[in-house]
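Encode chain A's predicted structure.
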Amino acid sequence: MEEPLTEDLLDELRNAPSPEDYLARHAGSTRVFADYLNELLDERGLERKEVVREAGIDATYGWQLFKGKRKNPSRDIVLALAFALGCSVRETDRLLQAAGVSKLYVKERRDAIVIFCLDQHTTLEETNKALYRMGERTIGGD
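Encoded structure for chain A:
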């Protein structure tokens, strides 16, 4: 599912006669976290249990996330899933946004490392090693 670019939406908002008009045209366009997780899973032909295992998430909790039974996962859980799914930075930001947590921000040291690792297609384990080596909190770590 191709999502409109933010710049295009901003132009549309600026040209709308009112904010209500814009919002009426885009009602329901917010991604549901579980739906987007499953969309990514299907696109890649992966199995849910393998992604959950790769993300280092408890199997029951992972099942609840994919079924939409848990609505507010932590930012680190979402990042772990993004790495397990092999997401791009854009897909990761969309997943974070759908989960209701902050997107990656290149000016934040930890986020910059995560962005670099996503671009390099590193594993969660490799990313955590890089974060640890540079004195940052690992994904899933305290």
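The chain has one domain: 30-133.
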